[in-house]
Amino acid sequence: MTLSRRDLALGLPALAALWSIPTIGAAQSGLSAEDQAVLQRAQTYLQGLTSAQGDFIETGPGGQTRRGRFWLQRPGKMRFEYTDPAGLLVVSDGSNVNRYDPRLNVFRQVPLGQTPLSTFLARTVRLDQGVRIDRVTRMQSGAFAITARDARRPNEGSVILAFAGDPMRLQEWTITDAQGGRTRTQLTSLRPASGLSASLFQLRDPTRRPGRDR
Question: Does the structure show a pLDDT above 60 at 205?
Fold first, then answer.
């Protein structure tokens, strides 16, 4: 089965849209120098986030709450492991993004290159193409937020990314989809990681029976 845009939004803490955050480029030429400096800080931070792990709380459009853990290893690999509801997994192995829901016994897969995740998980993060910045909000504390959308599909929704200022850290993001539904993901912890096991980023199809062709 293929993985839809809605599956990515709901089953991957809305990260499918998250990694569309841009850096300075032609599409951002109307921003102030201060706003462009903020975007550059965000770009540098995300480029340096090569290996990390943490915990998240996701609140969906209907107020439903999901919790879980995540791991990141660039290039190409991420794992989102839900603890509530237990068992839901979303894993990028460097080639494909795989999603398994044990409650429904459904496994879905899409090539990584067909998702916005491929931009962030690349060895070199290039985020200056195809993105429109709606707003940069700067706070006196040094914290800031960036509102962005896909310039090619501006009506398909937007993402707000919120960063702490000192020390700089990605705190949360909120995705608004084409229907106006909002999904908020709060990172309750985010820390560097090293020596992550390769098995974290492997997810075979649990619904496939041995010897069965699919």
Answer: yes
The CA-atom distances, in angstroms, between 206 and each of 18, 94, 98, 202 are 28, 19, 11, 12
**Segment holding 47, helix H or strand E:** helix 33-48
CB 171 within 8 A of CB 186: yes
Q: Dump pLDDT digits (tens) for 45-68.
A: 888 888 999 999 989 888 989 899
| Cα distance from N-terminal residue to C-terminal residue, the chain | 10
| Paired tokens of 196 | 């992550």
What is the chain's percent helix, strand, coil content, to nearest 5? 20, 45, 35
Q: Is 156 in contact with 150 (CB distance < 8 Å)? A: yes
Q: How many residues does the chain have?
A: 214
